[in-house]
Specification:
The structure is a homodimer of 452-residue chains. Chain A has 452 residues and is mainly α. Helix content of chain A is 68%, strand content 7%. In chain A, strand 5, helix 15 and strand 6 form a beta-alpha-beta unit.
C-alpha cells in the first residue's frame, strides 16, 4: 500500500543516493522492481540527458514498453529512433492498441512500416484500423478493446461470459450493446449489470437515451469537452454508418486536456507543448531562435516608427524617456484581453451571438482604464518634466493605445481562428506589434503635431 | 441517443431562435426538458449578463441545483447570493456531498451557517465532515458516498447486498474494504467482483499491493498528479489514523487539472482563472486596473533608467530609436525560460538535483542566441545608422540582456516559490522589470561610456 507516495519518496531517495555513489546494480533493482512504470517515466522526464540515457539503459527490456507509454512525445521519439524495428515491435507487444498507435506516430514513416510487418496479423489489423484515423480525432484516440453484447441475451449469460474471461480491460464501466451488423445500440453499465435481476435481458436493462456516442472523425478537443461536461469514464466510438469501431477512456482524455491547456500557455511564449524540460542546449537554442527572430522583426518595425520622429525627439528628449510607458501599458492591457478571449475560445464560450457584446465590453473596459491611467500618468509627467503639453499628449496617447489594445486583443483571436492560424501562437506577437506601433505613433505623432 | 451532439446543436439553434422572437414558453421547455444540465450551464456561461439572468429565471426550481454545480465559481456566487438560505438549502437537497460543499464554499460564512441549520441532520453531518478540510486539499475534494465491505464475507454476500441496493454511486469502480474500526485495508474492483468465483471471500480477491491511498491533507494538485500518473477513476481518502473518510473521483480531478492549467495561463496576464468571460464592464475594469497599475510602476522604473541618460540620447538620437529592441529581445527570451520553468514546476520536474543543470542550460542557450542575434542586430544597425560604435554597443547590450533574461527567467520561479509567492502571477512582472532595466542600463550605459 502506498500512502500518498510516502514509500515512493523513500525509494526515490535511495535511488538518488545509489546514483550518486554509482551503485548501478542497486539502481537497476529499484527501477525494475521498486517503482511503478509511471514513476520511472516521471524520473526520466526529470533527468538531464546524460542521467536519462544512463537510467534508460538500466531498465529491463520487458519493462521498456510500459515505461515508454508514460513518456512525453519528445522523449519517446528520442528513445525509439535509437532502436531497430524488431526491438520496437518487441517493446510494443504487451501494450494496448491506442498506446501502440501513439508510439508509432512518433516514428519516421519507413520505420512504422517495418514495425507493422513484424507484428502478428491480429495486432497489426487492430493497429492499422486506428492508424487510419487522424491523430487528433476521436478515431486516433480510441482503443479497440471493447466488450460487446447482443440485446437479446440474458444478464445471466453475460455474467457467465465475463467469468470465463477472468479479466476486463481497464476502465470498463459499460459493456456495449451492438446489433448483428455491429451497429451500436446502447450501453449496459457494469454497475447496472451487478444490481439487476440476472434473468432480465440486456434489452430490458440497457440504456439508450442520452448516451453520448462519439463519431470517429470528431476532433479530440471536442471529445474532451464531452467527457468533461458529462463526467464520462468511457464512451463508444462509431463510424459514419453507426458501426461500433472502438471506445475512448478518460485516462487518454485527461492527457488531451493537459496538452490542450499546456498548448495555450506554451504557445504564447513560442514554445511547443511537448517541449522536453531537459532538452540539450543546442536543440533548445535552435527552437527558441525562430521565435526571437520573429519578435526581432516586430521590434525593428517599432524602431522604424520611432525613427520617423527623430527630429522631434532631438528637440524634446523627454519623449524618449516616456515613450516606453505608452507601449508597455498597451501591451499589458492587450494581453489581458487576448488571454481572456483565447481561454474563452478554448472553453467554447464564444460564438456569433455574443462576440459583439464581448468586443463592446472590452472597448468600454479599455476606455475606463485608459481614462484612469491616462490621468495618473499625465499627473506624474507634469511633476516630472514640468511641461503641461507633454502631460496632455501622453494622456491622449495612453487612451488611444488602450482602445487599440482592446480592439486588437478581442478581434485577433477571432480573425486568426477564421484563417486557421493558432491564436495562442500568433496572437501575442501580432498584438505586441500593434500596441508598440500604435503607442509610438500616437505619442510621437501627437508630439510632432503639437510642437511644430 | 446523442450523436456527437448533433441533436444538441439543433436544440440550441431552436433555443436561440426562441430567445430572439421572445417565445419564452418555448425557451423554458427547451431549458428544462430538451437540454442536459451541463449544457444549460454552458449556455449560461456563454451568455452576457442580461441574457444570463433571463435564462436562469426560466429554469425550473427542481433543476436549479443540477445546473448550479456545473457553473464556474464566479457565476455560482453571483446566483447564490441572490437567494435566501432556505432556497439555497432546497436547491442543494438533491446534490452529492462534494457538490454541496463546493457551493457552500462560494457563500458568505453567515449564509453557510444558515443553510447548514436548514439541512437534515444526516446530510449536515456529511457536509460538515468535508467542510472541516481545507478547500484545496484531498479532504475538500472528496465525496462521502463510499461503499464499504468487510474482508471476511464472501463475494456472494457482496453481490446480494449490491442487488438489494439497486444502484451504485457514479464512478464506483472499486468497493472499499475496511476493518471493524473503519481502517482502510484494500480495494475490491467491481470488475474483479464480476469475474471471480462467488464463493471466494473478499480477502482472497481484494487488492492491497500498490493501491493508491490518499491522505486527506494532501494538496489537490498532488492528488491530480497521482490520478494522472496512475490512470485512476477513484481513490480512497483516509485520515491521519488510516481510517477511511471518503473517496475522490476522476470527474472532480479533471476540474482540478483544468483549473490548475488555466491558472498558469490566466495568472501570467494578471487574470483570475475563475474569471467570468461575460462579467460586466465595470467589474472587469476594476480587476484589470490593479494589474495595469503594477505594470505602470515597473514602466516608470524603466523610464527613470532612461532618464539617467538624457544627455547621451540628446547627442545621439539613434539610441532612442534602437533601445526598445534591446528591452524587447530580453523580455521575449526571458518569458520563454520563465514559461518553461513554471510548466516544469507544475509537472513536478524540478528539484534540487537538476535545478543547477537547468540554470546552466538556460545560460548557454542565452549565450548562443545572444551571440546570434547580437550579430544580426549589429549588422542591421551598421547599415541603418552607418556607425560602427553603435552597432558594437547594441550587440554587447543584447548579449548582456539575454544572459540576464536566462538567469532571471530560470531563477525567479524557484525563488518566488520558496517565498510562497505564485511564480505564474508575479513572475512575468518582475521578469519584464529586470529585462527592461538591464536592457536600457546596459545599452545606454555602454553608449555613455564609449562616447564620453
Amino acid at each position: 500500500m502506498a500512502h500518498s507516495g510516502d514509500h515512493k519518496i523513500k525509494r526515490l531517495k535511495h535511488l538518488n543516493e545509489a546514483l550518486e555513489t554509482g551503485a548501478l546494480a542497486q539502481v537497476r533493482r529499484i527501477l525494475n522492481n521498486g517503482l511503478q512504470s509511471a514513476d520511472v517515466a516521471h524520473l526520466l522526464e526529470s533527468s538531464p540527458p546524460k542521467e536519462r540515457k544512463l537510467l534508460w539503459d538500466l531498465i529491463d527490456e520487458e519493462n521498456e514498453g510500459e515505461v515508454l507509454q508514460y513518456l512525453s512525445d519528445d522523449i519517446q521519439a528520442w528513445i525509439l529512433t535509437s532502436m531497430s524495428a524488431q526491438e520496437v515491435a518487441n517493446v510494443m507487444a504487451d501494450l494496448e492498441t491506442d498506446d501502440v498507435v501513439d508510439l508509432l506516430q512518433n516514428l519516421p514513416n519507413t520505420l512504422t512500416q517495418e514495425v507493422l510487418t513484424s507484428m502478428d496479423t491480429q495486432d497489426r489489423h487492430r493497429v492499422e484500423s486506428v492508424l487510419s484515423y487522424d491523430e487528433d480525432s476521436a478515431g486516433g484516440l480510441m482503443n479497440t478493446d471493447t466488450i460487446t453484447v447482443r440485446p437479446d441475451i440474458t444478464l445471466e449469460v453475460v455474467l457467465r461470459y465475463l467469468r470465463r474471461h477472468r479479466s476486463l480491460p481497464d476502465m470498463t464501466d459499460n459493456l456495449l450493446v451492438v446489433s448483428r451488423r455491429d451497429e451500436f445500440i446502447g450501453i449496459l453499465p457494469i454497475n447496472k449489470l451487478l444490481v439487476s435481476d440476472p434473468d432480465s435481458t440486456v434489452r430490458e436493462v440497457m440504456i439508450t437515451d442520452d448516451v453520448i456516442v462519439i463519431r470517429a472523425d470528431l476532433p479530440e478537443t471536442e471529445v474532451a469537452k464531452l467527457f468533461e461536461r458529462h463526467d464520462l469514464i468511457s464512451a463508444p466510438v462509431v463510424d459514419a454508418h453507426g458501426r461500433l469501431v472502438g471506445r475512448i477512456t478518460i485516462d487518454d482524455v485527461v492527457d488531451v486536456i493537459r496538452e490542450e491547456a499546456d498548448h495555450s500557455l506554451m504557445s504564447m511564449a513560442g514554445l511547443d507543448e511537448d517541449e522536453d524540460t531537459f532538452a540539450p542546449a543546442l536543440r533548445t537554442s535552435k527552437s527558441r531562435a525562430v521565435w526571437l527572430g520573429i519578435n526581432l522583426l516586430t521590434a525593428f518595425l517599432a524602431s522604424a516608427v520611432i525613427g520617423m520622429f527623430q527630429g522631434t525627439i532631438e528637440q524634446i528628449v523627454a519623449l524618449a524617456v516616456l515613450m516606453p510607458i505608452v507601449a508597455s501599458m498597451g501591451g499589458v492591457a492587450g494581453s489581458q484581453t487576448l488571454t481572456l478571449v483565447i481561454r474563452a475560445q478554448a472553453l467554447g464560450h464564444i460564438d456569433k451571438s455574443n462576440a459583439s457584446w464581448l468586443l463592446n465590453r472590452e472597448l468600454i473596459v479599455g476606455l475606463i482604464n485608459g481614462l484612469l491611467w491616462a490621468a495618473v500618468i499625465a499627473v506624474v509627467t507634469l511633476f516630472w518634466f514640468h511641461d503641461g503639453r507633454i502631460a496632455l499628449i501622453i494622456g491622449c496617447a495612453i487612451i488611444i493605445n488602450l482602445l487599440a489594445a482592446a480592439l486588437s486583443g478581442a478581434m485577433l483571436p477571432m480573425v486568426l481562428k477564421r484563417f486557421g492560424i493558432d491564436p495562442a501562437l500568433a496572437g501575442s506577437v501580432v498584438l505586441t506589434t500593434i500596441t508598440d506601433v500604435v503607442g509610438f505613433l500616437s505619442f510621437l505623432g501627437l508630439a510632432t503635431a503639437f510642437y511644430r
